[in-house]
Amino acid sequence: MAAAGIQIGDVWVPGRVLTAPMTGITDLPFRRLASRLGAAYVATEMVAAAELARARPDVVRRAAVGEGLPLTVIQLVGRDPAAMAEGARMAEKAGADIVDLNFGCPAKEVTGSACGSALMRTPELACRLMQAAVEATTRPVTVKMRLGWDDAHRNAPLLAKRAEEIGIKAVTVHGRTRQQFYTGVADWTAVGEVKAAVGIPVIVNGDILTADDAREAMRQSGADALMLGRGVYGRPWLAAHMERALADGTVLLEPGREERLDIVIEHLRASVAFYGLPLGLKMFRKHLGWYVEQAPWPAEPVERRAAKSRLCRLESPEEVEQELTTLWRSVTHSGNHAVDISPQVVKARVA
């Protein structure tokens, strides 16, 4: 990679491996942890612009920026230009460095409300939403989209060009159509058509799980940066480690047992502190499952599945810490693993 980061409007992002906004995943505890581990850019969960404008408590919590984070990216979703404008204003007041607009979420509950990737079927409305956000905030506004609604309507290059004319400062493109959801494979070459259509930074997204994936996605798309989604499940260190792997041409270095254990416990305690009990433990369980699935110990997948099931039924954080510590420390293995593994992909809504 030619440079150490990417310029988005007046914001310098000190890295080219970005982490996507993901509902139920990139909450404040996750973002704090990933940032501490070296991630340059971790977006908030998808936030409904209209509800943020009405200051609904749970949405404000979802967009919580915290203190000490090096970069805050708040992603908004909606279909009403006035609400999008107010949401952008509130995002800036909340401390957003970048405001991102969601034109890519394929979930039925989102597209059924004419939001997310459904906006690629209504480009005029999409343009009004972008215009409203750009005019409402002094912060750089970006857009995350898909290739189009379906294969017959791949309009990402045209929409990205219009976005640039409106004043959008960067676009992220997931290399699938909405109708594909997460089936098939991401078309990184098609993202290159967007790159050829605009002068603003283009970020490639979709199916990037390993350093080799990252290199190939960048080569095929010609993108300025890449965005990780499901690959970070159970691996909040992935963005930072992939950044280093791309810089020096090596494979990904996975954490060893003690470091990984410390990361999981830190995440668990942060979730409980942020949400309280019992919600904090409930919110953490999906992460716990992924941490166990992605660890190389126990070696047998059936044993990992059994451990995951047992751990996710525990009723207190203290029990989780004790049982996980016992599980991982009882397995004989060597330190760090310089292995570029392809983690199991778990389906979830990636904004």
What does this entry look like structurally?
By secondary structure, the chain is of the alpha/beta class. 44% of the residues lie in helices and 13% in strands. The protein is built from 14 helices and ten strands. α11 packs antiparallel against α14. The chain is globular, with a radius of gyration of 20 Å. The two termini are 26 Å apart.
Sheet having the most strands: 8 strands, parallel
User: Which oligomeric form is depicted?
Assistant: single chain
Radius of gyration: 20 Å
Helix content: 40-55%
Spans where pLDDT lies below 50 across 5 or more residues: 333-351
Number of strands: 10
Structural topology:
Elements (H helix, E strand, L loop, with lengths): L5 E3 L2 E3 L3 E3 L8 H9 L6 E6 H5 L3 H6 L10 E5 L3 H13 L4 E6 L4 H4 L11 H14 L4 E6 L9 H11 L3 E5 L13 H10 L4 E4 L5 H11 L3 E4 L9 H11 L8 H19 L3 H16 L6 H11 L5 H13 L22
Parallel strand pairs: 3-10, 4-5, 5-6, 6-7, 7-8, 8-9, 9-10
Antiparallel strand pairs: 1-2
